[in-house]
Structure formats: structure tokens, C-alpha cells
Amino acid sequence: MILTITMNPSIDISYPLEVFEMDTVNRVKNVRKTAGGKGLNVTRILKQLDAEVTASGLIGGFLGEEIKKDLDQNKIPHDFLPIRGETRNCIAVLHEGQQTEILESGPVISETEAAAFLKHFAKLAAKADIISFSGSLPEGLPSDFYSQMLQVCQPKPVVLDCSGAALAEVLKGKVKPKLIKPNTEELAGLLGRTVSTDVEELKTALSDPMFEAIEWIVVSMGGDGAFAKHFDKFYRVRILKIEVVNPVGSGDATVAGLTAAIEAGFSDEAILKQGNVLGMLNAQEATTGHANFANYQTLFDQVKVEEVG
Ligand code: ADP
Q: Cβ distance 127 to 52 under 8 Å?
């Protein structure tokens, strides 16, 4: 079983508008509302991959109930810890080819809730083969909370996709995740410098001592594919140009592809291919966290993984 963790989920609302007018009323049809947060995107893709998945994290209030309903409707097993605060709304106004986002920061988690979650998580983790942690930590949790979770779920492998202080703390921590998936921006944030798609530059970047003892580092590079390090092997993943409809959530789809492939015991090449194919399939769909599997094999055969030292 794959356990997915979303600590700060949301109901994602998209408001498509021809024109967004300030300081007056904007009326909107075709409103779309989905259970969101990076971990739930990962969950939806895993479900479409036919993986056995359970979603967990923290939810509260009316919107928390809506998330559970959404998962039930999609026949996705879940076991969230209820909290006193309210799960958030995240609103995207799509207008004139632009996207204006209003993101609530979400509930503030108490120390008691944090301790209760660690216990809840330890029980679920014991039943999992592999676990993914995705996205930001809600307010109230210390920035080393993912490190605390890594300690309580030992020796289960963890695929981690987060950024900023939460990621920096994990890199400093004693127990390491099996895989991290920074994108180029997140990699630059960690290193304090931008990194191009040049193979030698990427090799140097991933050889930085901060990544020591992390088995897999997969840097996703949008339309440029990916670059990866597995133990002491480096791989360049090259992809073809595709028609992109909506790349939001492609990184989450990649995480789902990588996680399911690792659980299934795929080769390095197949793990990287599946991760990229899922990212590409997500980018080809309007809905975040959706993939049209009819195109899976064609893309899988076209993605090239080259070992580069
Ligand atoms: P994130 O969403 O975390 O920023 P990326 O944008 O790097 O992650 O996307 C993850 C993967 O999805 C990429 O490695 C690639 O395989 C695929 N992908 C994303 N954007 C595109 C694109 N514009 N064209 C083709 N593939 C894409």
C-alpha cells in the first residue's frame, strides 16, 4: 500500500472569467471545485495508476468533510486526523490568459494535534510499503515536522516533495527520505544559485554534501525533462516536445509515477520513465491530477534515459 500525506490540503476553486474587473461584481459560471493540495494530486494519479493507496494528513471543519466526500466519490481510501481548525480554500481566478490566485494560509495546528498526528501517522505507516509527503506544512507545526515523521516511520521508504524551510530541515535531519524531487527553482533555492540544464553543472549540484545519504534525487525540469542521481549514478532524462494544456500539478504526477514504480520494483530507467510520462500526461490535461493513459505507452517509448556517469 502507498500512503500519501497531505498536511495542508485545500478545496481548490477555479473561477474562469473573460474579464476580471476590480472593485465591482464579477459573475462566474463553470466553477470547478476539487480536493487539492499536492498530496491529493499525487493520490488521484496513483488511483488512476491502479495502485493501492490511502490518503492521510490533517483536515478540519466543513471543507474537511468536503474533501472526504470527494475522496469517497473517487473510491479513494482515506484516514485523516480531524483537527479543530478549518481546512482552507484556494482560489484561482483565470482571466485574460492570466491566473490570479488567492491562497488561504489554512488552519493553525496545536501542539496536542501535532503529537496526535505523529501517533496516527505511525500506525498508518506500519501498514504501508512506501509513503509520500507532499507540500507545505500548516502553521503551528515546527519546520522539522517532516523530520519527526521520518523518524517515526522508520524504516519505511519516503518520497518527499516539499520546499523551503521544511525541505532544508529534512536535509539537515538524521533520517533521510529515499527520494526527493526538487524542480529547478527549488534546487536553486537550496543551493543559493541557479543551475542550468548542463549535465556537468547538474552533476556538481547534486554532488553537494547537503544531499549526502539521499538515495534518489530527481530534479524535474518542466519541458526539459529531468536529471537524476541514484546512489552514485547520474541520469539525464530527455523528453519530446508535447502540446501542453495545463502543467499545474505535473510535479505531483511525477511523484506519483516515481513512487508507484519504486513500490513495484522497476529498474532505474523505468522508474524515471514512468515519473516523466505521468508529468507529461498531466500537462496534457486541463484538470490537475488527471492523466489520459491511452497515451502512456507511446510517451514511455519516447522518453530517453541516458546514464551520464
Ligand atoms: P513541478 O510541477 O514540481 O514544478 P515540473 O514542472 O518540472 O514539476 O514537471 C514535472 C515533469 O512533468 C517534468 O519532469 C516533465 O516530465 C513533465 N512536464 C512538465 N511540464 C512540461 C512541459 N511543458 N512539457 C513537457 N513535459 C512537461
A: no
**Among protein residues, the one whose CA lies closest to atom 13 of ligand 1:** 222
**pTM passes above 0.90:** yes
Alpha carbon 151 to chain centroid, angstroms: 20
Q: Do 86 and 110 contact (CB within 8 A), yes or no?
A: no
Atom of ligand 1 nearest to the CA of 248: 2
Measured CA to CA, the distance from residue 304 to residue 22 in angstroms comes to: 47
* CA dist., res. 182 & res. 275, Å (int): 13
Place of cell 513500490: 263
Ligand 1 proximal residues by C-beta, below 6 Å: 183, 220-223, 225-226, 239, 242, 244, 247, 250-251, 254, 276, 279-280, 283
Question: To which residue does cell 496534457 refer?
Answer: 284
Measured in angstroms, how far is the CA atom of residue 25 from the centroid of ligand 1?
36
Q: What one-character-per-residue DSSP string does 188-213 give? A: HHHHTS---S-HHHHHHHHTSGGGTT
Closest CA to 289 of 23, 48, 86, 25: 48
Taking only the tens of pLDDT, the chain with its 309 residues reads 999 999 999 999 999 999 999 999 999 999 989 899 999 999 999 999 999 999 999 999 999 999 999 999 999 999 999 999 999 999 999 998 888 999 998 999 999 999 999 999 999 999 999 999 999 999 999 999 999 999 999 999 999 999 999 999 999 999 999 999 999 999 999 999 999 999 999 999 999 999 999 999 999 999 999 999 999 999 999 999 999 998 989 999 999 999 999 999 999 999 999 999 999 999 999 888 999 999 999 999 999 999 997
